[in-house]
Amino acid sequence: MNGVLIIDKPSGLTSHDVVNRVRRILNQRSVGHLGTLDPMATGVLPLVTGSFTRLAQFYVTSEKTYEGAIRFGLATDTYDAEGEPTTPSQQVTLTKEQVEDVAARFRGSIKQIPPPFSAKKIHGVPAYKLARKQKPVALEPVTVEIKEFEILSVDGDRARFRALVASGTYMRSVAHDMGKALGCGGHLESLRRTAVAEFAIADARTLDELASPAGKSAEDFFVHPRKLLPEMPSVTADEATAARIRAGRPVNLPEHSRARQVKVFSGQRDLIAIATRVAGTLFHAKIVLCGTDAPVHR
Predict the structure, then answer these.
(1) pTM across the whole model
(2) Which of 121, 291, 294, 297 has the lowest tally of Cβ within 10 angstroms?
(3) From the candidates 8, 38, 77, 203, which is the catalytic residue?
(4) What is the CA radius of gyration of the chain?
């Protein structure tokens, strides 16, 4: 079973927990995800199954959209609601204008220190493993990009927001740093991911829906392959061309001579390869998705 499945991840499960459940539901070992979500967070978690796990390389830098809430007046060691307090709790009442003024500092390209409880590695060891043992966690600032950051509402000590961010951005760090900037501390109270790349929350299914599909097959919940990687043109190969691609041989695709990469289909739904232009109209498969048991990389 090869495809992309969008799960609406519930709070309390790790991304790996979700992958394991889907493996059992589909009775398929080859399942991966396209970017983790913290256990507390909910929302869009794209999963790839079968040979489509090879598509993960094309989603490493995908943009993500979030909605959530920041609570001010208390900082935590994890920078979210599941952590232990690191500052005394204080009552604060903020205006939308105050929060918007600080939020403006976090738009665009900024330097951000990842949370100590994160998967960032220090000398090969994930930071969260050191943090759990109460060992020093010295993470260097990294450049991230927050393309949109809108404060939707402010009610006392809580601010609701919507953000569009580049890969590698931690909204937990944004909440923590905004609390510091306001002088009262802060942490991420809730977070829901509403989009990853071309995948939106409207495409998502719950684990319960997948486990009890109500007369549908599990494959009915998969994203149509033609909707994947929309920035790449699609070409439908005839049988001879498809056979050459499956065999790892170069092919001519004159109708897409200007494209750097294309999605190659056999029929409407059978995505067989991602091909890269070599020169002129000549393309070679970067990865072959059907007709081979091992990935072909070029």
Answers:
(1) 0.90
(2) 294
(3) 38
(4) 22
